[in-house]
Amino acid sequence: MVEEQILEPAGTTYKDWVGSAAAEDSFIKGAGNLYKLAGLDHDKWSILAIDVHAFSHGAPSDWQVSVYALDRANVTPDNYDGLKALEAEQGSVPVTEFKLHNVSLEDVVRCMKVMHVQLTRREFQRLNVVDRADFPPQD
Q: pTM of this prediction?
């Protein structure tokens, strides 16, 4: 057993760029499957979080991907309402971190129907798009 640690929002040392992300699971045949990628039995585990971290600094990217999953055998009832009640009662939901080795952002994206990551300079959070352009210019 590891020392308990609450999963914090994504962050960096200097926080030059901050933002949000959203994704939807893909359920079409031929798409990736997050449970298979993590080697988890969907009947035993519920993935509640994904953490994708990369370090580059001009070199080839070093990816670290983790999923945080709930062992359904440890929670009753293991449905949405039961998990929300557990979180309200205990202040958190107990999960196991699974570090996925040799996995990249592309591997995670292949498991999704759509994935959207938006980062803005931390000093400017309200941007009004007044024009559009392409680079390189398109016909």
A: 0.87
Residues 68/49, Cβ–Cβ less than 8 Å: yes
Q: Which residues neighbour 72 within 8 Å (Cβ) at sequence distance 6 or greater?
A: 43, 44, 45, 46, 78
Helix, strand, coil shares of the chain, percent, nearest 5, are: 15, 30, 50
CB distance 48 to 95 below 8 Å = yes
pLDDT tens, residue by residue, 3-49: 889 999 899 999 999 999 999 999 888 888 999 999 999 999 999 99
**Under the phi-then-psi rule, with left for phi > 0, alpha for psi from -120 to 50, and beta for the rest, what region is 57?**
left
Q: What is the pLDDT of residues 61-78, one digit of tens each?
A: 888 999 999 999 988 877
